Amino acid sequence: MDQQDAGGRAGADGFVELRVHGVSATGPDDLLDRPHVQQVAGDHRGGFYRPRPGNHEGGEADGVTLEAYRWNNLPAGTAVRTLSMVILLPFMLINLAIWMRPAGAGDPVIKALCRLLALTLTGMYVLSMVGIALDVIAWKCMSSPECLAGRSWLSWLGGRPAGLRLAVLALAPAAAISLVWGLSARPALPSHVFRAADQPLPAHRLTAVGRWDNEPLVGRLRSIHVAAAFATLDLSLLGARAAQGLSIGTVALTAVAGLLLVTCAVLLCTPPLTAPTEGRLDRLVSVLRTITLGLTVLVWIHVLTNPAPWPERNGLPGYNLTVVGLFIGQAILLAALGAVLFWHRDRQSDAAPSLGFGALAASVAAISLALTYSAELAYRVSDVLNRGAPTAEALITSPPRACIWAILGFTLAVLVTLAVGGVVSLTSRPGRKRAAASIVARDFPDAPNDAGPRLRQVRKAIAHARFTERLVPLAVLYACLAGIGMTMVALGLLPTPPGELIQRYVGLPVSFVNFSIGVGSYLIAAIIVGLIVGGIFAYRTPGFRRYVGVLWDLGTFWPRAAHPFAPPCYAERAVPELTCRITHLVDSGNTVVLTGHSHGSVLLAATVLQLPPRVTERIALLTHGSPLRRLYARLFPAYVSDEVIHEIADRVDWRWVNLWRDTDPIGGRVFPPHGPDETPAASDREATVDRRLCDPYGVIPPSGDIFPPPIKGHRPCESEEAFTESVRHLADHLR
């Protein structure tokens, strides 16, 4: 008997409660609240579990068979997650941008702009490696005897022709490109086994997640970005070679590399890019990538074998100009994206505070983060090569001035955002405290006098949870400030150092400016270390799990539609696998109560939209700690809206219960509070879905205990009586 048969027969002609966890899951035994469990379907990455037969705890409760779906191994393992949180985070953010667009017209233009911005991120990644390997090390350090002194791993190239040094060190950027190429080309999840194609694919709906065969698009994007990456490396080498003097070979190779780069940009804007089957385009991008790889070999040989002397002065010829030109191109694309989003913004009175500018905010955040990564890496490498000298000119030329201006711009954006966030926190605190006091007074009207300290803790938890609504405007503010800070990079073209320029026109001392740059550099380093630690402990420590885990699962929920180097999407397998399992359970004669916590509720929402009517007639839905409205509807208005949420409720015939707490900073209601002008029928149906839980259920220690009940916040509700009653209520409706 295989696992599928065992799982189907165990609950045949009965009721199955299928639990889907959120980011806080630990193991199937904890999810099922049973000490001994067995896997009945799936594999080690995503599997379905039930209590073992003969377990003294029992596999059924009130006639309902328990089953759990564990998916937290689908996104990635610890090592890959850590690497992704640090290196691939900008790629993940730009991939989110294409899904955060507002609903309505303008989709082709917004998608094209997001994909072009994603292409500039690939160029920035390559230029950062070029800046370290070719500019700082090969060009500057190896031209300085003081820098090479005591460094045998570098001195063997010292004094060699510049062409040889550049050719050898160019292998480092090529290896960096190959690294992300290999990571993005990992074997895809076997989602084709679970994919259901019996329903038409709607546009701009959550239904698309998990039903979209994304492999053709990712493969094309991968070939285009790899070609663009090597073309950028070629142009960097040829720009340095052109400083020695133009030749027919240099001009010809430069023209070909530039043409290939333009071709990559044009292909990203063509409609056939997203077609499920497009053989001609697949062959074209494959040929484009092959030609670019061949061109890279020719450029490498051209740089290596040219015997003419190279003028070694300042930095790598053309590098600063290339970096600034890239930022100017990004600024133009961001301005165009902002204009399109503004034209197609949501003009409804109850629109989210982001006003549909989430795509712009995510794009700016991705670019500014990639910029600060690059600047910090170049700054740190230069500091190491300088042996910690207080003056960068002591041994070698300091990092490119564009990098120093980038660090300064990032520091100002972060400090201003933190200052505004502090002001918003202080000014909104009285209102949040009043709302929290009103809730606590309503929940605990007869609290004794000695419960004062506990009541203050509850009010504080509720007030903190209500700050989530202010985070979206703060994110938009940071995006605007970071965008303004990016313009400072253009000052890197000026010959005057940042400290002297600011002292001349602003009046701040040079020492203070240099100190600020150093503080900004350490701030970026602290953020990188924090991301590394967060990636390691995201699923081991509750604190990291709550914040880093939410960011990770939010970012990897959406398919790769903009950048192929972003982490793979787990929903492409989880949703079809849930669809297959639920259909199997129903076809085996069961009725199913689906329960999902946090991101598990989003997976179930997408799954319900894909189930055929014969299945949805025999299922019910229970969500708790759901971010559907509070986060997804604000950030992804084209895919999660009132219309989509109502469609989910209609699919299950309004057999839906959503449990939420005022102390939860992530989850909340799935329907808005009822207004006086709503129709009674709509209000009555929506009122049956959202059910608020009093958290905590008491503020004094219960009999036999010395501690009051804990404040649950975003924790799952499976252990609470309200959860059990809701399952029983939904099971009765299914009967």
UniProtKB/TrEMBL annotation:
<feature type="transmembrane region" description="Helical">
    <location>
        <begin position="323"/>
        <end position="343"/>
    </location>
</feature>
<feature type="transmembrane region" description="Helical">
    <location>
        <begin position="221"/>
        <end position="240"/>
    </location>
</feature>
<keyword id="KW-0812">Transmembrane</keyword>
<feature type="transmembrane region" description="Helical">
    <location>
        <begin position="471"/>
        <end position="495"/>
    </location>
</feature>
<dbReference type="InterPro" id="IPR029058">
    <property type="entry name" value="AB_hydrolase_fold"/>
</dbReference>
<feature type="transmembrane region" description="Helical">
    <location>
        <begin position="162"/>
        <end position="183"/>
    </location>
</feature>
<feature type="transmembrane region" description="Helical">
    <location>
        <begin position="246"/>
        <end position="269"/>
    </location>
</feature>
<feature type="transmembrane region" description="Helical">
    <location>
        <begin position="79"/>
        <end position="100"/>
    </location>
</feature>
<keyword id="KW-1133">Transmembrane helix</keyword>
<feature type="transmembrane region" description="Helical">
    <location>
        <begin position="515"/>
        <end position="539"/>
    </location>
</feature>
<feature type="transmembrane region" description="Helical">
    <location>
        <begin position="112"/>
        <end position="134"/>
    </location>
</feature>
<feature type="transmembrane region" description="Helical">
    <location>
        <begin position="281"/>
        <end position="303"/>
    </location>
</feature>
<feature type="transmembrane region" description="Helical">
    <location>
        <begin position="404"/>
        <end position="426"/>
    </location>
</feature>
<feature type="transmembrane region" description="Helical">
    <location>
        <begin position="355"/>
        <end position="375"/>
    </location>
</feature>
<protein>
    <recommendedName>
        <fullName>Integral membrane protein</fullName>
    </recommendedName>
</protein>
<keyword id="KW-0472">Membrane</keyword>
